[in-house]
Design brief:
Layout (H helix, E strand, L loop, with lengths): L3 H35 L9 H10 L4 E5 L2 E4 H7 L2 E2 L1 H4 L1 E8 L1 H8 L6 H14 L6 H12 L6 H4 L14 H28 L7 E5 L4 E7 L4 H9 L4 E6 L6 H19 L13 H14 L6 E2 L9 H4 L6 H4 L7 E4 L3 H8 L2 H4 L6 E5 L4 E2 L5 E9 L8 E2 L3 E8 L5 E7 L1 H13 L5 E5 L2 E4 L2 E2 L7 E5 L4 H13 L6 E9 L1 H54 L3 E2 L1 H30 L4 H33 L3 H31 L30 H21 L3 E2 L1 H4 L1 E8 L5 H11 L5 E5 L5 E6 L8 H19 L2 E2 L10 E10 L1 H30 L2 H27 L5 E2 L1 H29 L7 H33 L5 H29 L11
Parallel strand pairs: 3-21, 22-28, 26-27
Antiparallel strand pairs: 1-2, 4-6, 4-20, 5-6, 7-12, 7-13, 7-16, 8-18, 9-12, 10-12, 11-12, 14-15, 15-19, 16-17, 20-27, 23-25, 23-27, 24-25
Helix pairs in contact: 1-2, 1-3, 1-19, 5-9, 6-7, 9-18, 19-20, 19-22, 19-30, 20-21, 20-22, 20-30, 21-22, 21-27, 21-29, 22-29, 23-28, 25-26, 27-28, 27-29, 28-29, 28-31, 29-30, 29-31, 30-31
Family: Belongs to the SecD/SecF family. SecD subfamily. Belongs to the SecD/SecF family. SecF subfamily.
Function: Part of the Sec protein translocase complex. Interacts with the SecYEG preprotein conducting channel. SecDF uses the proton motive force (PMF) to complete protein translocation after the ATP-dependent function of SecA.
Subcellular location: Cell membrane
Length: 997
């Protein structure tokens, strides 16, 4: 064999590289095991905070010495094979940058009614449209003002160098698009900065081109609310003057009187003062001490309070509203946290806001103060703004911020400003001596110190009774800068650590079981040749994992499915080779010549089969999202590795074992398989009409069921929210669905078991078009309430807290209606592009359009057949979801089916290339008969591993593996009874002699 030395050299190099990169994974896993052991108590419960503390303690400590090079735990993590969220738990978020605020800001916050109505109209239309928001806004603007130009609204002083009143709409639109694109880029950089400093290991953030979306994965996150706040925070930092209560006492009194009068009318003159809460002397003293301690400083800020506000006259009024009856202090407006909702109902009213002086806002403190008795109190500030609700100073002037400690050792934030900010800050502090300045972030007061003297250098210490974590978050946000526009979460998935652990175990079982079955089968059928194929297969899997580690790609559950599938499909090349060798030996060729001819004649079929499958993987990666990309990466790497190992590594081993043609050293058949599937002469072409009719009947039944009964679409395609709910004991799904239907009004809700009788998956379209955090909380709350009412069980936050009568939510996902449309469209495009690419490749390779069209017809047949199988399965009570992973399965079926078809086509081409007097029918039958053993062997090995995946792969991959089971069966069938017969029927007009079957 030529180039044997080079192949051995490359195998050794790749093997050493894989060992090098995978070694970091072994080291990292060992450290994580140590951390888990450290955080596990005697009862086996894991304290994840302690576990994280352990990992943080070794983060920058050398933990691995390799050939004299030392690596810290951080460096080891960066080099290890990443696990996807579905295998370790964590949070997946897709954010969309809101263009509304960008356009508003570009217009100078124009308050024109028609202009703002056009923005609202565009927002509504975007929910069901694939057009960009900017285009939708322009359409709505033209409807509102058909005779006006955009420049009338965007020709502001800030834009005078770019937009004048004479600027055409096309140019204004270009500028708007540019601003939106720049805002997305800036948001991406800001979010990446925040994520990099968030503290999670192996975060992943990427910009989804041409969508305005940013995708983020945070492995191991156990506080989703903190993540949402960090990601969606606009980080709008403002410095505002605090208006002391005595300055707005008239407005407060008027507001109180307004509410009281309403209460009198509703309650027939009942006194609301009966509900007033009195503060004991002891509580007042505690609160006074607390508030005096909380008076925060910046550099040269006094600790005293310049305000001598008093609410005595208001609190002593005979009739008071909740605005005063719930006050817990003589100082300022301080309420119990549980009462803030009542206060918000009042202060958010337009008629109440109109009573306060112009350019004032009511803002809550960022966090409650806890008294010794456990009561949590929250202060409501009144702050003054400049004209147009502008702040005295904003966060753009901050050039650095970091977590530090104040003089008494409490966490604080060290903040410095640029020259412009320092100059303005000096003027602000000079003009507000003996007044309080509120430091407001995202409309919450983080600190409100008294200014004692002018601060000339722009360097300040922000104190606010922070925890270290809160101080770090604030410093990160300040240093990252302010987002140019708000972001909203349009897709979210939370996977609990238990679900990730179970998925990981299921994936390992699938790989090991599938590998074992294939290894046994290959040796049983191909003897020593099978052993050689098994060696190549082990190399193949090792290479896949090593290359994934080198590329720093994440191994996901669909990626494991890709490896399992590769185990089955990688054997195909060896089956092709071995069957060719056996065919040559049956023809009388000696061993060495048979081996050479087998590799040579099988090569073109192997190349064609691998290229077509690789094409589908590339299209999956190009158009797919989320878990589909992980599957596509693994599939493509697997195809490349299997080609190298099956064609070249096995050739080296076979050449070495077959020296001098000694039959005792190598064989390709056992007594069982020696004459199996040989000398077959079936007339397959005569059955083609029957096959057409049979396939047509199944597909028609499936289409009718799809139209009448529908398919079960996952939230990927429909939008909505789903929750994986774990119960202490088995729960009946029907009664729970009835209860949730009553709780979630006018919404489609599905409840089904999820791998075990005590685990259910609840999917609902309730508030599908609402993507706010408030809507998320409302849906989750209704789900919890409905389950609790139906089962009598209590909800707990974590699985470790579950008792005999409890339930918890182990995982959840949300897909907005807009992104669901995008996913559905990209899935359709994936299938269409795959079919087009395969048609073009087959056309080029076989140089006859009949082959390309025949292959595409068979692939359409396979796709419809799988969909029909899903519809029939639903009728029989087996509901499998149609989602992104299903599309990956469909494209895999297309790749597998064309793989099988190409082998037959290649044999037909080979036969036609020989001057033969046989008719097309005879030629086609001969090609199928000659390749039938390879077809069945490949199908059997692949079906074995897919069946194992279906049984052990877990609920997440149940629909995926079912689609593959059906697809592999029908793909094998269609290559014989659909693709080849279609080519025959299309070729009837050719010059070759035609004989009717």
């Amino acid at each position: 064999m030529k180039n044997r030395g080079f192949i051995v050299f490359m195998t050794v190099i790749v093997t050493l590289l894989c060992i090098y990169y995978l070694s970091f994974t072994f080291v990292s896993n060992g450290i994580k095991d140590d951390a888990t052991a450290y955080a596990t108590d005697q009862e086996g419960n894991i304290n994840y905070s302690q576990r994280q503390e352990y990992l943080d303690s070794v983060y920058n400590v050398p933990v691995y010495n390799l050939l004299g090079a030392e690596f810290t735990y951080k460096e080891v993590q960066d080099m290890e094979l990443n696990l996807g969220l579905d295998l370790q738990g964590g949070m997946h978020v897709t954010l969309e940058v809101s263009p509304v605020d960008i356009i508003k800001g570009l217009s100078g916050n124009n308050e024109d009614e028609g202009f703002n109505q056009a923005l609202e109209t565009a927002k509504e239309r975007q929910k069901t449209s694939q057009n960009s928001f900017v285009d939708l806004f322009y359409q709505a603007f033209q409807e509102e003002y058909p005779d006006k130009k955009l420049s009338e609204f965007f020709a502001t002083s800030a834009n005078r160098e770019r937009i004048s009143f004479q600027t055409e709409d096309s140019e204004v639109m270009r500028i708007i698009r540019s601003e939106v694109d720049d805002a997305i880029d800036r948001s991406f950089e800001i979010l990446r900065t925040r994520i990099d400093r968030f503290g999670t290991s192996q975060p992943n953030i990427q910009k989804l081109e041409n969508t305005g979306r940013i995708q983020i994965e945070l492995p191991g996150v156990d506080n989703p609310e903190r993540v949402r706040k960090l990601l969606q925070g606009v980080a709008k930092l403002e410095f505002l003057q605090v208006v002391e209560v005595n300055e707005v006492s008239d407005a407060l009194g008027a507001a109180n009187e307004l509410i009281v009068e309403e209460q009198k009318a509703k309650q027939s003159n009942e006194l609301v003062s009966e509900d007033a809460t009195d503060v004991s002397e002891e509580e007042s003293a505690d609160l006074a001490d607390l508030l005096s301690e909380d008076e925060t400083d910046t550099t040269a800020v006094a600790e005293g309070d310049s305000t001598d506000a008093s609410l005595d006259s208001l609190e002593n009024a005979q009739n008071v509203s909740p605005l005063f009856s719930l006050i817990r202090s003589q100082y300022g407006l301080v309420y119990e946290v549980t009462d803030t909702a009542k206060i918000n109902d009042i202060i958010q009213r337009e008629d109440v806001q109109a009573l306060f002086p112009r350019n004032t806002r009511l803002i809550w403190d960022v966090k409650p103060r806890k008294l010794d008795d456990g009561t949590e109190l929250l202060e409501l500030y009144v702050v003054r703004t400049l004209r147009n609700n502008q702040a005295m100073l904003t966060g753009e002037v901050i050039n650095d911020a970091r977590q530090t400690f104040d003089q008494v050792g409490q966490p604080a934030v060290d903040m410095s400003m640029d020259a412009t900010g320092a100059r303005k800050w000096a003027k602000i502090t000079r003009e507000n001596i003996n007044k309080r300045i509120a430091i407001v972030l995202d409309n919450y007061v983080y600190s409100a110190p008294n200014v004692n003297v002018e601060i000339p250098n722009g360097k300040s210490i922000i104190e606010g009774n922070f925890t270290i974590e809160e101080a770090k978050d604030l410093a990160n946000i300040l240093k990252a800068g302010s987002l140019p526009a708000p972001t909203r979460i349009v897709e979210e998935a939370i996977i609990g650590p238990t679900l990730g652990k179970e998925a990981r175990a299921q994936g390992i079982i699938s790989i090991v079981a599938g590998l074992a079955m294939v290894l046994i089968f290959m040796v049983a059928y191909y003897a020593k040749g099978g052993l050689i194929a098994n060696i190549a297969l082990v190399f193949n899997i090792f290479f896949i994992l090593g290359i994934l580690a080198q590329l720093n790609a994440a191994l996901t559950l669909p990626g494991i499915a890709g490896i399992v599938l590769t185990i089955g499909m990688s054997i195909d090349a060896n089956v092709l080779i071995f069957e060719r060798i056996r065919e040559e030996m049956r023809g009388g060729s000696p061993l060495l010549k048979a081996i050479s001819a087998g590799y040579s004649k099988a090569y073109s079929s192997i190349v064609d089969a691998n290229v077509t499958t690789f094409l589908t993987g590339a299209i999956l990666y190009w158009l797919g999202q989320g878990p589909v990309k992980g599957f596509a990466i693994t599939l493509m790497i697997g195809i490349a590795c299997s080609f190298f190992s099956a064609v070249f590594i096995t050739r080296v081993i076979v050449s070495w074992m077959s020296k001098k043609g000694d039959q005792s050293k190598i064989s390709f058949a056992t007594p069982f398989s020696k004459n199996l599937l040989t000398n077959i002469s079936a007339n397959f072409m005569s059955k083609r009409k029957m096959a057409y009719i049979g396939s047509g009947i199944v597909i028609v039944i499936g289409v009718v069921l799809m139209v009448t009964k529908g398919l079960t679409f996952g939230v990927d395609f429909t939008g909505g929210r789903s929750y994986v709910v774990r119960f202490a004991d088995q729960v009946e799904t029907t009664s729970l669905k009835v209860a949730l239907d009553g709780t979630l009004e006018d919404a489609g809700t599905e409840v089904k078991t999820y791998g075990a009788n005590n685990i259910l998956k609840v999917t609902t379209s309730y508030l599908v078009n609402e993507e706010s955090t408030e809507a998320d909380n409302e849906v989750k709350s209704k789900i919890i309430d409905g389950i609790a009412q139906a089962t009598g069980m209590s909800y707990v936050e974590t699985e470790s807290a579950m008792g005999d009568n409890d339930f918890t939510i182990s995982g959840s996902s949300k897909v907005g209606a807009t992104i669901a449309d995008d996913i559905r469209n990209s899935s359709q495009e994936s299938v269409i592009f795959a079919l087009i690419a395969i048609f073009i490749y087959i056309l080029i390779r076989f140089r006859r359009w009949q082959f390309g069209l025949g292959a595409v017809v068979a692939l359409f047949h396979d796709t419809l057949f799988v969909l029909s199988a899903f519809a029939i399965a639903k009728l029989l009570g087996f509901s499998f979801e149609i989602d992104q992973v299903f599309i990956a399965a469909i494209l895999t079926v297309i790749g597998y089916s064309i793989n099988d078809t190409v082998v037959v086509f290649d044999r037909i081409r080979e036969t036609l290339g020989v001057k033969s007097k046989a008719s097309n029918v005879e030629t086609f039958n001969m090609a199928i008969n000659n390749t039938i053993s390879r077809t069945l062997m490949t199908s059997i090995t692949t079906l074995v591993v897919i069946l194992i995946l279906f049984i052990f792969g877990g609920e997440v991959l149940r629909g995926f593996s079912f689609a593959l089971l059906v697809g592999i069966l029908v793909g094998t069938y269609s290559s014989i009874f659909i693709a080849t017969p279609v080519v025959l029927d299309l070729a009837k007009g050719s010059k070759k002699k035609q004989v009717e079957a």
